Amino acid sequence: MTRFAVIADPHFHDAAFTGTGDRLFLRSLADTAESTRVFNESAPAFRAALDQIAAQGIKTVIIVGDLTDDGQAYAVDGALTLLEGYTARLGMRFFMTVGNHDLFARAGRHQSKRILRDDGRYDLVTSDAQASDADAAGRVVTGAMLAGGYDRVVPALGRLGFMRHPQDIHWESPFGSDDALTSRLYTVRSDDGSQSVDMVDASYLVEPAPGLWLLSLDANIYRPKGDGFADCSEAGWNAALEFKPYLLAWTADVVARAQQLGKQLVVFSHYPVVDPLDSTIDEELALLGKTTFARRMPVPAVSEAFLAAGVKLHFSGHWHVNDTARIADDRGYVLNMAVPAPVAFPPAYKICELSAETLHVDTVMLRDVAGYDVGFARYAAECAVTGYDDEGLRAATDHFGFIGRHLDLLVRDRYLPREWPQSLRGMVERVNLGAVARLAGGMLAPDMAKLPFMTAVVDWYKLRKASDLALGEIGAARLEAYAKLAALFGARSWPEESSERQLGRFFGMMMRYGAGLPATRFKVDLASGAVTPD
Question: What is the largest CA-CA distance in the chain?
Answer without folding.
Answer: 69
